[in-house]
Amino acid sequence: MLEEQRFAEILIRWQQRAGRHDLPWQQARTPYRVWLSEIMLQQTQVSTVIPYFERFIERFPDVEALAAASADEVLAHWAGLGYYARARNLHRCAQQIVTVHGGAFPKTAATLAELPGIGRSTAAAIAAFCFGEKSAILDGNVKRVLCRVFGISGFPGSTVVERKLWSLAEALLPETGIGTYTQGLMDLGATVCTRGKPDCDHCPFTAACVARREGRQRSLPEARPKRIIPERRASFVLIVDAHQRLLLQRRPPSGIWGGLLVPPEGEANALLEQLQLRAPLRQKLPHLLHTFTHFRLELQPTLCRIDETPEIPPGEFVWIALEHASDAGVPTPIRKLIRRVASVLG
Ligand code: SF4
User: Fold this and answer.
1) Radius of gyration (Cα) for the chain, nearest Å?
2) 101 and 24 co-located in one domain
3) Which ligand 1 atom is the nearest neighbour of the CA of 210?
4) What is the CATH number of the domain that holds 160?
5) 271 Cβ neighbours under 8 A, 6+ residues apart
6) Is the CB of 144 under 6 A from ligand 1?
7) 175-222 pLDDT, tens digit each
8) Which residues contact 94 (CB under 8 A, 6 or more apart)?
9) Bridge-based pairing state of the strands 245-250 and 261-262
10) Model pTM?
11) What CATH number has the domain bearing residue 312?
Protein backbone atom coordinates (compact mmCIF):
# COMPACT_ATOMS: atom_id res chain seq x y z
CA MET A 1 0.00 0.00 0.00
CA LEU A 2 1.32 3.40 -1.00
CA GLU A 3 2.15 5.58 2.00
CA GLU A 4 -0.01 8.68 2.13
CA GLN A 5 2.94 11.03 2.35
CA ARG A 6 4.62 9.48 -0.70
CA PHE A 7 1.51 10.09 -2.79
CA ALA A 8 1.87 13.88 -2.63
CA GLU A 9 5.63 13.78 -3.22
CA ILE A 10 5.24 11.62 -6.32
CA LEU A 11 2.36 13.69 -7.65
CA ILE A 12 4.09 17.05 -7.15
CA ARG A 13 7.22 15.84 -8.89
CA TRP A 14 5.18 14.47 -11.77
CA GLN A 15 3.15 17.69 -12.12
CA GLN A 16 6.32 19.78 -12.33
CA ARG A 17 7.73 17.51 -15.01
CA ALA A 18 4.70 16.44 -17.03
CA GLY A 19 1.64 18.39 -15.86
CA ARG A 20 -0.09 21.26 -17.62
CA HIS A 21 1.41 24.71 -17.18
CA ASP A 22 0.00 26.83 -19.94
CA LEU A 23 -3.76 26.75 -19.53
CA PRO A 24 -5.18 30.28 -19.82
CA TRP A 25 -6.43 30.32 -16.21
CA GLN A 26 -2.99 29.30 -14.95
CA GLN A 27 -1.64 32.68 -16.10
CA ALA A 28 -2.40 35.45 -13.60
CA ARG A 29 -4.04 33.07 -11.16
CA THR A 30 -6.54 35.42 -9.56
CA PRO A 31 -9.49 34.06 -7.58
CA TYR A 32 -11.82 35.41 -10.28
CA ARG A 33 -10.08 33.54 -13.08
CA VAL A 34 -9.68 30.34 -11.07
CA TRP A 35 -13.32 30.43 -9.99
CA LEU A 36 -14.56 31.05 -13.52
CA SER A 37 -12.43 28.24 -14.96
CA GLU A 38 -13.45 25.79 -12.23
CA ILE A 39 -17.14 26.44 -12.84
CA MET A 40 -16.72 26.16 -16.61
CA LEU A 41 -14.73 22.93 -16.27
CA GLN A 42 -17.49 21.16 -14.35
CA GLN A 43 -18.81 18.48 -16.73
CA THR A 44 -16.92 20.10 -19.61
CA GLN A 45 -13.62 19.32 -21.34
CA VAL A 46 -10.66 21.71 -21.19
CA SER A 47 -10.53 22.09 -24.98
CA THR A 48 -14.18 23.21 -25.06
CA VAL A 49 -13.74 25.58 -22.14
CA ILE A 50 -10.67 27.52 -23.39
CA PRO A 51 -12.38 29.70 -26.07
CA TYR A 52 -15.36 30.36 -23.77
CA PHE A 53 -13.06 31.32 -20.94
CA GLU A 54 -11.13 33.74 -23.14
CA ARG A 55 -14.27 35.40 -24.54
CA PHE A 56 -15.78 35.63 -21.07
CA ILE A 57 -12.68 37.24 -19.58
CA GLU A 58 -12.50 39.71 -22.44
CA ARG A 59 -16.12 40.82 -21.93
CA PHE A 60 -16.19 40.50 -18.11
CA PRO A 61 -12.59 41.13 -17.00
CA ASP A 62 -13.36 41.13 -13.29
CA VAL A 63 -16.04 40.20 -10.80
CA GLU A 64 -17.47 43.77 -10.77
CA ALA A 65 -17.97 43.69 -14.54
CA LEU A 66 -19.71 40.33 -14.29
CA ALA A 67 -21.93 41.45 -11.42
CA ALA A 68 -22.98 44.59 -13.32
CA ALA A 69 -23.91 42.71 -16.53
CA SER A 70 -27.46 41.68 -17.31
CA ALA A 71 -28.43 38.04 -16.80
CA ASP A 72 -29.21 37.83 -20.51
CA GLU A 73 -25.75 38.93 -21.49
CA VAL A 74 -24.10 36.46 -19.12
CA LEU A 75 -26.24 33.65 -20.52
CA ALA A 76 -25.43 34.75 -24.08
CA HIS A 77 -21.69 34.37 -23.33
CA TRP A 78 -22.36 30.98 -21.79
CA ALA A 79 -24.56 29.70 -24.63
CA GLY A 80 -23.21 26.40 -25.93
CA LEU A 81 -21.45 25.34 -22.71
CA GLY A 82 -24.61 23.68 -21.33
CA TYR A 83 -25.77 23.22 -17.74
CA TYR A 84 -27.10 26.77 -17.65
CA ALA A 85 -27.75 26.72 -13.91
CA ARG A 86 -23.98 27.22 -13.69
CA ALA A 87 -24.22 30.54 -15.53
CA ARG A 88 -27.11 31.77 -13.41
CA ASN A 89 -25.28 30.82 -10.21
CA LEU A 90 -22.09 32.42 -11.54
CA HIS A 91 -23.91 35.70 -12.02
CA ARG A 92 -25.59 35.54 -8.60
CA CYS A 93 -22.29 34.63 -7.00
CA ALA A 94 -20.53 37.62 -8.64
CA GLN A 95 -23.26 39.94 -7.34
CA GLN A 96 -22.95 38.50 -3.86
CA ILE A 97 -19.16 38.92 -3.86
CA VAL A 98 -19.60 42.58 -4.82
CA THR A 99 -22.46 43.41 -2.46
CA VAL A 100 -21.58 41.24 0.55
CA HIS A 101 -17.78 40.90 0.31
CA GLY A 102 -16.89 44.29 -1.20
CA GLY A 103 -15.69 42.75 -4.48
CA ALA A 104 -13.05 40.46 -2.88
CA PHE A 105 -13.36 36.69 -2.85
CA PRO A 106 -13.44 35.17 0.65
CA LYS A 107 -10.09 33.59 1.47
CA THR A 108 -11.11 30.28 3.02
CA ALA A 109 -12.69 27.21 1.45
CA ALA A 110 -15.37 27.13 4.16
CA THR A 111 -16.55 30.70 3.37
CA LEU A 112 -16.21 30.24 -0.39
CA ALA A 113 -18.46 27.18 -0.18
CA GLU A 114 -21.29 29.37 1.14
CA LEU A 115 -21.50 31.25 -2.17
CA PRO A 116 -24.01 30.25 -4.88
CA GLY A 117 -22.79 27.47 -7.18
CA ILE A 118 -19.51 26.88 -5.30
CA GLY A 119 -19.39 23.34 -3.96
CA ARG A 120 -16.90 21.94 -1.49
CA SER A 121 -14.39 20.83 -4.13
CA THR A 122 -14.51 24.07 -6.15
CA ALA A 123 -14.11 26.10 -2.96
CA ALA A 124 -11.07 24.00 -2.04
CA ALA A 125 -9.52 24.50 -5.49
CA ILE A 126 -9.85 28.30 -5.27
CA ALA A 127 -8.52 28.36 -1.70
CA ALA A 128 -5.60 26.09 -2.60
CA PHE A 129 -4.60 27.87 -5.82
CA CYS A 130 -5.12 31.45 -4.70
CA PHE A 131 -4.64 31.49 -0.95
CA GLY A 132 -2.41 28.43 -0.39
CA GLU A 133 -4.96 26.79 1.92
CA LYS A 134 -4.34 23.12 2.63
CA SER A 135 -7.71 22.04 1.33
CA ALA A 136 -8.79 18.88 -0.50
CA ILE A 137 -10.53 18.73 -3.88
CA LEU A 138 -12.66 15.75 -4.86
CA ASP A 139 -14.27 15.99 -8.28
CA GLY A 140 -15.03 13.07 -10.59
CA ASN A 141 -11.44 12.89 -11.91
CA VAL A 142 -9.95 12.85 -8.43
CA LYS A 143 -12.38 10.18 -7.25
CA ARG A 144 -11.32 8.01 -10.17
CA VAL A 145 -7.60 8.43 -9.43
CA LEU A 146 -8.01 7.70 -5.72
CA CYS A 147 -10.28 4.69 -6.27
CA ARG A 148 -7.75 3.21 -8.65
CA VAL A 149 -4.50 3.99 -6.84
CA PHE A 150 -5.82 2.86 -3.45
CA GLY A 151 -8.17 0.12 -4.75
CA ILE A 152 -11.32 1.59 -3.21
CA SER A 153 -14.40 -0.48 -3.99
CA GLY A 154 -18.04 0.63 -3.99
CA PHE A 155 -19.83 3.32 -5.96
CA PRO A 156 -18.04 6.67 -5.28
CA GLY A 157 -21.37 8.52 -5.34
CA SER A 158 -22.64 6.59 -2.32
CA THR A 159 -22.45 8.38 1.03
CA VAL A 160 -20.20 5.78 2.62
CA VAL A 161 -17.63 5.67 -0.19
CA GLU A 162 -17.73 9.43 -0.69
CA ARG A 163 -17.03 10.01 2.98
CA LYS A 164 -14.11 7.59 2.79
CA LEU A 165 -12.74 9.39 -0.26
CA TRP A 166 -13.00 12.81 1.39
CA SER A 167 -11.04 11.64 4.42
CA LEU A 168 -8.45 9.99 2.18
CA ALA A 169 -8.19 13.17 0.05
CA GLU A 170 -7.59 15.17 3.22
CA ALA A 171 -5.07 12.74 4.62
CA LEU A 172 -3.04 12.90 1.39
CA LEU A 173 -2.58 16.70 1.40
CA PRO A 174 1.05 17.85 1.46
CA GLU A 175 2.48 20.31 3.98
CA THR A 176 3.88 22.45 1.15
CA GLY A 177 3.19 22.88 -2.54
CA ILE A 178 -0.61 22.66 -2.30
CA GLY A 179 -1.13 24.50 -5.61
CA THR A 180 1.13 22.16 -7.59
CA TYR A 181 -0.35 19.16 -5.82
CA THR A 182 -3.93 20.21 -6.59
CA GLN A 183 -3.06 20.91 -10.22
CA GLY A 184 -1.29 17.53 -10.36
CA LEU A 185 -4.41 15.70 -9.22
CA MET A 186 -6.48 17.48 -11.86
CA ASP A 187 -3.90 16.86 -14.59
CA LEU A 188 -3.37 13.20 -13.78
CA GLY A 189 -7.11 12.50 -13.88
CA ALA A 190 -7.63 14.49 -17.07
CA THR A 191 -4.59 13.39 -19.09
CA VAL A 192 -3.25 10.04 -17.79
CA CYS A 193 -5.70 8.20 -15.57
CA THR A 194 -8.63 8.82 -17.88
CA ARG A 195 -11.93 7.02 -17.62
CA GLY A 196 -11.73 4.81 -20.70
CA LYS A 197 -8.00 4.56 -21.44
CA PRO A 198 -5.72 4.95 -18.44
CA ASP A 199 -2.14 5.31 -19.67
CA CYS A 200 -0.60 3.25 -16.87
CA ASP A 201 2.78 3.03 -18.59
CA HIS A 202 3.24 6.78 -18.28
CA CYS A 203 1.70 7.17 -14.85
CA PRO A 204 3.80 8.14 -11.83
CA PHE A 205 1.85 5.62 -9.72
CA THR A 206 2.37 2.70 -12.05
CA ALA A 207 4.33 0.71 -9.43
CA ALA A 208 2.04 1.42 -6.50
CA CYS A 209 -1.43 1.52 -8.06
CA VAL A 210 -3.77 -1.22 -6.80
CA ALA A 211 -6.00 -1.14 -9.90
CA ARG A 212 -3.00 -1.58 -12.17
CA ARG A 213 -1.52 -4.37 -10.07
CA GLU A 214 -4.81 -6.26 -9.93
CA GLY A 215 -5.88 -5.44 -13.50
CA ARG A 216 -8.97 -3.59 -12.21
CA GLN A 217 -8.58 -0.34 -14.15
CA ARG A 218 -11.85 -1.04 -15.95
CA SER A 219 -13.87 -1.90 -12.89
CA LEU A 220 -12.63 0.95 -10.67
CA PRO A 221 -14.25 3.24 -9.80
CA GLU A 222 -17.30 1.01 -9.55
CA ALA A 223 -20.40 1.94 -11.49
CA ARG A 224 -23.63 3.01 -9.83
CA PRO A 225 -25.43 -0.15 -8.75
CA LYS A 226 -28.40 -0.98 -10.94
CA ARG A 227 -31.69 -0.57 -9.21
CA ILE A 228 -33.92 -3.61 -9.42
CA ILE A 229 -37.47 -2.43 -9.95
CA PRO A 230 -40.11 -4.89 -8.78
CA GLU A 231 -42.78 -5.84 -11.25
CA ARG A 232 -46.50 -6.17 -10.53
CA ARG A 233 -49.39 -7.35 -12.66
CA ALA A 234 -52.95 -6.12 -12.68
CA SER A 235 -55.91 -7.20 -14.82
CA PHE A 236 -58.33 -4.58 -16.08
CA VAL A 237 -61.72 -5.28 -17.60
CA LEU A 238 -62.78 -2.87 -20.29
CA ILE A 239 -66.54 -3.27 -20.61
CA VAL A 240 -68.15 -1.56 -23.60
CA ASP A 241 -71.94 -1.53 -23.97
CA ALA A 242 -74.17 -1.39 -27.03
CA HIS A 243 -73.93 2.43 -27.07
CA GLN A 244 -70.16 2.42 -27.17
CA ARG A 245 -69.94 3.46 -23.56
CA LEU A 246 -67.02 2.33 -21.40
CA LEU A 247 -67.43 1.43 -17.76
CA LEU A 248 -65.03 3.27 -15.47
CA GLN A 249 -64.61 3.08 -11.73
CA ARG A 250 -63.30 5.71 -9.34
CA ARG A 251 -60.24 4.47 -7.43
CA PRO A 252 -60.13 4.80 -3.66
CA PRO A 253 -58.32 7.96 -2.55
CA SER A 254 -55.14 6.19 -1.44
CA GLY A 255 -52.91 3.86 -3.46
CA ILE A 256 -51.92 4.20 -7.11
CA TRP A 257 -54.11 6.50 -9.16
CA GLY A 258 -56.00 7.49 -6.00
CA GLY A 259 -59.30 9.21 -6.88
CA LEU A 260 -58.87 8.77 -10.66
CA LEU A 261 -61.20 6.94 -13.03
CA VAL A 262 -59.96 3.65 -14.43
CA PRO A 263 -61.62 0.53 -15.84
CA PRO A 264 -62.51 -1.91 -13.07
CA GLU A 265 -59.57 -4.01 -11.91
CA GLY A 266 -59.94 -7.73 -11.36
CA GLU A 267 -60.86 -10.98 -13.02
CA ALA A 268 -63.42 -10.62 -15.85
CA ASN A 269 -65.85 -13.40 -14.85
CA ALA A 270 -66.09 -12.35 -11.23
CA LEU A 271 -66.55 -8.74 -12.15
CA LEU A 272 -69.26 -9.36 -14.73
CA GLU A 273 -71.08 -11.52 -12.24
CA GLN A 274 -70.82 -8.85 -9.55
CA LEU A 275 -72.26 -6.28 -11.95
CA GLN A 276 -74.84 -8.72 -13.31
CA LEU A 277 -73.72 -8.21 -16.89
CA ARG A 278 -73.45 -10.73 -19.71
CA ALA A 279 -70.61 -10.34 -22.18
CA PRO A 280 -70.86 -12.71 -25.12
CA LEU A 281 -67.71 -11.23 -26.73
CA ARG A 282 -64.45 -11.24 -24.83
CA GLN A 283 -61.02 -10.49 -26.12
CA LYS A 284 -57.66 -10.36 -24.38
CA LEU A 285 -55.70 -7.32 -25.55
CA PRO A 286 -51.89 -7.04 -25.59
CA HIS A 287 -50.25 -6.25 -22.26
CA LEU A 288 -49.07 -2.77 -21.55
CA LEU A 289 -46.06 -1.96 -19.38
CA HIS A 290 -45.92 1.19 -17.29
CA THR A 291 -43.02 2.21 -15.06
CA PHE A 292 -43.64 4.04 -11.81
CA THR A 293 -40.81 5.33 -9.63
CA HIS A 294 -40.72 2.25 -7.43
CA PHE A 295 -42.19 -0.51 -9.54
CA ARG A 296 -43.24 -1.55 -12.99
CA LEU A 297 -46.84 -2.44 -13.67
CA GLU A 298 -47.95 -4.86 -16.35
CA LEU A 299 -51.53 -4.05 -17.27
CA GLN A 300 -53.41 -7.05 -18.63
CA PRO A 301 -56.55 -5.79 -20.36
CA THR A 302 -59.61 -7.81 -21.34
CA LEU A 303 -62.19 -6.24 -23.60
CA CYS A 304 -65.78 -7.35 -22.89
CA ARG A 305 -68.59 -6.33 -25.25
CA ILE A 306 -72.09 -6.42 -23.91
CA ASP A 307 -75.15 -6.08 -26.12
CA GLU A 308 -77.32 -4.15 -23.69
CA THR A 309 -77.30 -0.57 -22.41
CA PRO A 310 -77.38 -1.10 -18.66
CA GLU A 311 -78.22 1.48 -16.03
CA ILE A 312 -75.33 3.08 -14.23
CA PRO A 313 -74.43 0.57 -11.54
CA PRO A 314 -74.60 1.97 -8.04
CA GLY A 315 -71.53 3.20 -6.23
CA GLU A 316 -68.29 4.30 -7.72
CA PHE A 317 -69.01 3.20 -11.32
CA VAL A 318 -69.73 5.42 -14.28
CA TRP A 319 -70.46 4.83 -17.98
CA ILE A 320 -68.62 7.24 -20.28
CA ALA A 321 -68.82 7.47 -24.07
CA LEU A 322 -65.73 5.65 -25.36
CA GLU A 323 -64.73 8.61 -27.53
CA HIS A 324 -64.58 10.90 -24.47
CA ALA A 325 -63.27 8.39 -21.97
CA SER A 326 -59.58 9.12 -22.51
CA ASP A 327 -60.19 12.78 -21.55
CA ALA A 328 -62.07 11.89 -18.38
CA GLY A 329 -59.18 12.35 -15.95
CA VAL A 330 -57.73 8.90 -16.44
CA PRO A 331 -54.05 8.07 -15.80
CA THR A 332 -51.68 7.91 -18.78
CA PRO A 333 -51.41 4.12 -19.22
CA ILE A 334 -55.19 3.84 -18.97
CA ARG A 335 -55.55 6.47 -21.67
CA LYS A 336 -53.38 4.23 -23.85
CA LEU A 337 -55.59 1.24 -23.07
CA ILE A 338 -58.72 3.19 -23.95
CA ARG A 339 -57.21 4.27 -27.27
CA ARG A 340 -56.34 0.66 -27.95
CA VAL A 341 -59.93 -0.38 -27.29
CA ALA A 342 -61.22 2.39 -29.53
CA SER A 343 -59.00 1.23 -32.38
CA VAL A 344 -60.02 -2.42 -31.90
CA LEU A 345 -63.68 -1.44 -32.09
CA GLY A 346 -62.86 0.77 -35.04
S1 SF4 B 1 -1.43 3.22 -12.86
FE2 SF4 B 1 -3.07 3.36 -14.34
S3 SF4 B 1 -4.96 3.04 -13.21
FE4 SF4 B 1 -3.35 3.48 -11.73
S5 SF4 B 1 -3.49 5.67 -11.39
FE6 SF4 B 1 -1.99 5.35 -12.99
S7 SF4 B 1 -3.13 5.50 -14.92
FE8 SF4 B 1 -4.60 5.23 -13.25
Assistant:
1) 31
2) yes
3) 4
4) 1.10.340.30
5) 237, 264
6) no
7) 999 999 999 999 999 999 999 999 999 999 999 999 999 999 999 999
8) 63, 66, 67
9) antiparallel
10) 0.70
11) 3.90.79.10
